[in-house]
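Quick one: structure for this chain?
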Amino acid sequence: MSESLPLTPRRTDTGLLSTIRGQPPHIPDHELLRCIGSGSYGEVWLARNVMGTYRAVKIIYRQTFLDERPYEREFTGIKKFEPVSRSHDDLIDILQVGRNDQDGCFYYVMELSDDAVSAEKIDPATYEPKTLEREMLSRGRLPFEECLRLGLSLAAGLGHLHKHGLIHRDIKPSNIIFVNGIPKIADIGLVADVESSTSFVGTEG
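Got it. Here's what it folds into:
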C-alpha cells in the first residue's frame, strides 16, 4: 500500500466536498457536479461530459503522498489497468486517464453506477450509487436464482482479472455496483499485482 497523508475533507460554501484547493480541479471535457465519495487519497465526483452523459471521476492528489515515487507508481498502474477494465463486461470501465500537474493530481473517468432509487435516470442533486450492499439492505435476503446469477457474473470478472495477473483484494457488497442493471466489480484501487503485496493500480478512498 502506498504511503500517504490523510486528506481533511471540508464543506465549501456551495455545499460541495473539497479537500485540497477549495474547488475541484479542471477535468477536460467534464463538468464536476458533486462529490459523492472521499477517502484518504482522493475523491469521487459525479460529472457530466460534453455530450451530456453522466460519469464518475476519481481524483487522486499528489500532496496526499509522502513523496513522488508512490504517486507516479499509482498513475502508471492505472494507465496499465485501463484497457483491462474495458475488456470484460463485469469490470467497471475506465474511459479516460489523465493528470493535471498544475492542480497536483491525476484522475480517471469511469462509467457511472445506476442510481440507487431511480436506476438509470440520474438526478445530480439526489444521486446515490446503486451497490449490492444497498440492495441487500433495502430488500433483505435475495432470491437464490439472483444470487446464482450474481455469483457467476462476478466470478467471471475475477477470472478475467486473474488471467491478466491481477487480483481484487476486497470483494464485498459495497464494492459491487450496477450499471444498466449489470453487476460490476468496482473500487479498482484495491486491484493488485499477483506477484506483489502492494497496490498495482489506484488507491483506497
